[in-house]
Design brief:
CATH architecture: 3-Layer(aba) Sandwich
Low-confidence stretches: none
Strand order of the largest sheet: 5-2-1-6-7-8
Helix content: 10-25%
CATH class: Alpha Beta
Number of domains: 1
CATH topology: Rossmann fold
Number of strands: 8
Strand content: 15-25%
Radius of gyration: 16 Å
Order of helices and strands: EHEEEEHEHEHE
Largest sheet: 6 strands, parallel
Bound molecules: pyrazine-2-carboxylic acid, zinc ion
Length: 202
């Protein structure tokens, strides 16, 4: 069985938001249309406390998009985004949520970031998304959402790590940095993942 994973389609990741992905809003009609083709639709939601250490604002003397080390891992320092309970953390209003059976929140531990919907970046803790999918009989996941080079890519990698087939729907995602996404795609293919266009599903 195939599931569609809608990754972080939230106000802060579209133009006007705190960590806007260029053209991020343009994927939403496609994310809605694609849902018809799947037996199961799940969404992830980036959901940070205000003191999250992935925010540049929580590091004295650091600027946005500089890097630091968190829990031994290189960490990009982001603008404050997807803070729990704020409008920026809400799903985009034009995203159809009616068929979404479950929402997996991530990024709640202030000490570590969590790009993937499956684990934090150190794979210290699971969200139980993989167990949920397996319990529903899912063997293949297709990914849409934001951002292509971060949360979509890391979710696809972790899906493969969990023994699921993973396919990114390229036109249903947009990157923060297109060079980074080219590298991410090459890596994903080398790990056994796939990249398609939505036209092969619709
Ligand atoms: C994301 C950076 C920080 C994403 C989330 O959803 O791709 N990127 N938090
Ligand atoms: Zn985040």
């Amino acid at each position: 069985m195939k599931a569609l994973l809608l990754i972080d389609i939230q106000n802060d990741f579209i133009p006007g938001g705190a960590l806007a992905v260029p053209e991020g809003d343009q994927i939403i009609p496609l994310a809605n249309k694609l849902q018809e083709r799947f037996d199961l639709v799940v969404a992830t939601q980036d959901w940070h406390p205000a003191n999250h250490k992935s925010f540049a604002s929580n590091h004295i003397g650091k600027q946005v998009f500089e890097t630091t080390v968190l829990q031994g891992l290189e960490q990009v320092l982001w603008p404050d985004h997807c803070v729990q309970g704020t409008a920026g953390a809400e799903f985009c209003t034009t995203l159809d949520m009616n068929k979404v059976e479950a929402i997996f929140r991530k990024g709640m531990n202030p000490e570590i970031d969590s790009y993937s919907g499956f684990y934090d970046n150190g794979r210290l803790k699971t969200t139980a998304l993989a167990d949920f999918l397996r319990s529903k009989g899912v063997t293949e996941v297709y990914l849409a959402g934001l951002a292509a080079d971060y949360c979509v890519y890391f979710s696809a990698k972790d899906a493969l790590h969990e023994g699921l087939r993973a396919t990114i729907i390229e036109d249903a995602t947009r990157p923060i940095d297109s060079t980074g996404f080219e590298q991410a795609k090459a890596d994903l293919l080398s790990c056994g993942g796939s990249i398609i266009y939505s036209s092969s599903l619709l």
